[in-house]
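Morning!

This is the sequence you dropped in the shared folder:
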Amino acid sequence: MSRQTIRLGISTCPNDTFAFHAIMNRKVDWQGLDFAIELLDIQQLNNRLFEGSWDVAKASFHAALLLTDSTVVLPSGSALGFGVGPLLLAAKTDSVPNHTGQLTLCPGQHTTANLLFRLFYPETTRVEHRVFSEIMPLLQQGQADFGVCIHEGRFTWQDQGLALVEDLGTRWEKETDSPLPLGGILASRRLSPETISRVQSVIHESLLYALSNPEEAMLSMRRYAQEFNDEVLMEHVKLYVNEWTQDLGSVGRHALSELSQRARSIGLAPESSHDIEVWS
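The structure's back. Tokens below.
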């Protein structure tokens, strides 16, 4: 009997290459599935999801909110937590977004980082989107006033001579008393319930493998990371891979509901859209 191929897209960020190391290197049972895997920038993943290119993929939860009719979020593989949010950085000390002559760079239209900036600084500056790895260099070069920084840059911005305007994740936590939901693993509703359950099981096993073999998983992290310092990579994993990565649980589901409601309140999701659904 032929094996079902699952078109799987994940990001190059360390928490994904850590969690999916065992799948990429076939260290866990694929449970009768064949995974065709691509690693891309998060906004590229979002775009391809809107095109219907994936069976299963990592996506920003902002994108997930716009795809509730066609996808469900798997319980395992998400990135959310306290102290994990994007940073709003400035090229100059004491700068504040306050007029439309200023330029803010965000890492993609449908990223949660962009949603947070729009939520907390509505219509204060012009916004342009860049691949996340380009944002800090462009700030250093004086090509923009502000940038919303994600991934490894959260740990290295001070070394780049940039200034912190605000930790957007901390602001979210204070206003909602919930962990910040950044991104999760979306499965297409085209898949059968039985297939979705098998995919979820493989991902959960891959995550458990990485947690038991972190030094081995480091090989995949190094291969794709923008930052090659092992200490920074492991700090990234410690921050973004947590109890809610293993299972969203009731706390994670509440955070997704909060994000859904706030996005609708500022017009970043249709008023008629459903809250993000987690597979169970």
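Headline: The chain has a mean pLDDT of 92.

More detail when I'm at my desk.
O.
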